[in-house]
Each structure stands twice: as structure tokens, then as C-alpha cells.
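Mods, move this if it's the wrong board.
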Amino acid sequence: MNEALEMNRYIGCNQAAMNAAAAIIAFVLLASCANTSDSKLSSGAPASSEEIIAGLQIVDCLLPGQLRKLGNMTYLSPRRPIKTTAADCNVRGGEYVAYDRADYKTALKIWLPTAEQGDAEAQLAVGEIFEKGLGAEPNYEAAVLWYQKAAAQGNKSAQFNLGTMYEQGLGVAQNKLQALNLYREAWGMPADSVIFQDAARSEQQALRKALEAQLSAKNDQLALMERQLASLKKKTASKQPSDSAPVTELATLTQIVASLQNDRASVEKQLSTIPRLRTPAASLNATPAQAATAAEIKVADMDFGRYYALIIGNRNYTQLEHLETPLNDAREVGEILEKQYGFQVQLLLDSDRLTVMKAINELHSVLGENDNLLIYYAGHGSMINVGERDTGYWLPINADPPPNDASWVSNDFVSNHLGRIQAKRVLVIADSCYGGLLSSAPGHLFFGQTTGAGSSDYIKYKLPRRSRLLLSSGGDKPVIDEGGRGHSVFAQELIDTLRSNVGVLSAPDLYASIRGPVKARAAVNQFVQEPVYKSIKGAGHEVGDFFFVPKALSQ
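Not the wrong board. C-alpha cells:
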């Protein structure tokens, strides 16, 4: 009996998935719109659910050239690559490779010619192809090269992606200061801004401390080697010319000393390149004001736009064990977002694969350029290891047990669509096993180094920038299903924080508020769990943020 109860405590970790070491992720999405998916084939015959699903996949599409006229001359413009759904590509007469057969070579055929002509968006796409690998091992050096080309033209997504490469040391030597500066450029922030200087100062102090420790160690090693070298030179001078052993030892020691001198010079050079920053004055807190309308939330002179949420809760599975709390979690989160924060909420409870995928696809026709989208998922999750990469999945209620992933919803499907929609700010909240696998990006360098996430300066810098953010209940590990008064441990803290908030709440502040309590609640239940907050790489993130604004501030 106790063993059965223990198994039911894990959300997004069905028993078969746990035994097979598989797992998925989870989130939340908005929507309230008409169905835009084609329900018939071009022949007029009704399409099967699998054919509809295939049409919803994001593909690399090469559109045909356009017939243009200049004076009396007509000409055909070059073919143009875009990312769109397979169905849309088909309707527009484009060429693409079936999603499940695409690899880096076929994807490069679509994007590389345009990238070589200098198109920044195509260069970004080529960089992402090399970084992901697409059926082959990732080529990080090539990815960096193409990101640099696009970043040099001011492409914000390329600047951000290049920053993540420097932060993790992929394809380049790890350099967190360089990463931070690239994030700043993607953000559109001046080098002397309050927020950047605060974050850079913290990173600089850590880097300077590490380099100074290296320099001290090099000096100690060099002093020791130089003493040994001087002693050996004296001994060598007294030996017979025919005795080659001391001469060989002297040559070796001389090389070691030269190498240490070069190492020391390299560390000194790195120290000399760390810029000195001015100390800025503290920023002021935002002053709430009334919004002009209920549809568009405004605080003072800041327009936050409209808010939508797609809430997905899966509890009653047809072939997997049931969970306890996802439906309660989804309903209460949706109610708080709608009543307290003015979200337009679409609630999907116990949904199958096709329903979830269609809802995500339809977001493209709903959201405008200044809109906000919150995606919340609670349910089973699983993962599959593909080469060096772990791929996460949501498990809809019609999911087969692992490892049969034919009816699962992949992270790639979700992130590809998030890159396609127009919404300025997107936050995915995933409460399932392996939810953190939705993004391969590192954690935010800015987070934890700025103290004014609710300040007017912070909000004004962040608000115009696109954001694609992930708040996961437990990273790439299993998470607990209960322990929160009828909710999961994570959902209970999320609900309490959102309900008690009375000001403009940023995503970093939300994460900071729930991270410690979730760890503590899980520990009470003899479980280790820690939420994760990071950007969703490859979905068009520009170092923006997501803000929760209570309706009371806009009345």
C-alpha cells in the first residue's frame, strides 16, 4: 500500500517512464480562437488525425520565387526560406523535407544559400542547425561562426545564442563577461546602464578573483622553477662536457619556466581587459497608475499589452497510471490568472495529442505583437536520449508507455511554435518530470545579480524586448505530485505567490519567491526538488522578461 502511494506522488513520471529512465516536460499555453488547421487533404478527402498532426509540424520551407515586374521587364525573384507549418508551406507551393526525415544536410540546403548571401535570419538558422545537430553530432564551432555573422548585423537572437555559447564554453573558450555583453547587446541596453553595470560588476568581481588566484599560483610555481633552474645551472657548469644528463634536464626545466611565463602573461592580459565600470545611482521603484482600458494593461507610462494563457492539465490517462493533482492545479492557476490578473484563459483538461497540438498551432492567429502568453502544463512527462542530447516530451492522455513516443508531444514542437508566434512575451510554466528539458540554454546570468527586477528602469528595458522563458518545477529530474494541500508542491507555492502579490511581479521575482519554499516542502516529503528558471533557446528570445500585473493596478 505504501509503495503504491509513493509511486503516485510523482507528477509527470509514470511508473514505466521511471523504470525506463524516460521523461517529458510540461507547460502552459493560451488560446481562445478559431481552428485554423486544415481538416481535408488537397484531394478533398478527409484528413486523418496523423495527417493533420504532420501538417502542424514546423518545417524549413523554401518558398518559390515571386514573379515581379520592373518597367517592361519581368523577372523571378530568388526562392526564400522561412520556418512555417508543413500545411502552410504546402498551400504556398513551397518545398520542404518531411519533419521526421529532416537532418542537418537537408535543412542546410534550405538555408545555406541565403545565409551565404548575407541574410542575418538565414545565418541564425544555419547556426541553430549546427548547434542542434539534427540527427548528427552538434558542430559548436560552426554554430559560433554563423551566430557571429548574424550578430555582427545586429540580429538579436543571434547575439543571445552566441552569448549562451560563451557562457557554456561551447565552440569557444568560456567567457561569462563576453556572454553578459552579448546579452546586453541583444537586450538593446547601453553599456553604462544601471542594470547591466550591476550584473557586470558581480561577474567581473568573480572573474577577477579567479584570475588573481591563478596569477598568484603561477607566480609561486614560476618562483620555484626559477630557483630550481638557477641551482641546476650551477651544477651543470661544474660537470664535464661529456655528461649530457644535466644538460638535458636543464633544457627541459628551461622549457617549463618559459611555459609558465607565457601562462602568467596570458592571465595578466585577461586581467587587463576587465573594464572598470562607474558606480550608478540606485534606481527608483515603479509607481503604479491606472490603465486606460481593461484589455490593455498599463502602469504609469508602461504599456504591458494584453494577456492570454493556455492551461493544460492531464490527470486521467488511458494507458498510464492516473495522477492526483494536475486538474486541481490547472483550474486554480487559471482562475487566479483570469480574475486577479486579467488573462484570457483557455483551459484544456485531460486532452489528447491532437487537441494539444492544434491549440498550440492556433496561437499564431490569436496573438499580436505586444501580447503576453502564459503556457502552463501539469501532467506526465518523459524523455528520450538522442545521441548527446536528452529530448523531453509532454504526455497527453492517449500517450503510450515509454519508450513508444508515437503519440507524445515533443519539446521541439512547442519551442518551434513559440518562435513562430508574434507575442512579445512568453512564459512557459512546466510542472512535470523533466520539464527543464524544454530548453538547452544555461540559467540567466542576469538573474541573481540584479536587485531591481521590479524597478521602473528594469521594466522599461525589458518590456520592449521579446522573451521566451521557462519556469520548470524540477529541471531535468522527477518532481513530486502531492504535498501542497490538494496541489503539487510546486503548484501550491505558485498559487500562493500569485494570489498574495499586489505589485508588478517579474518572472525572476516569481522564481525567487517559490524556489526555496518548493525545496523545503519537497524535503518534508523526503524528496529532492528544485525549480529551474531559464530562457527557451531557439524560440526568438531577446533577453526580455514576463510581468504579472494585478488588475487592481489598472483600475
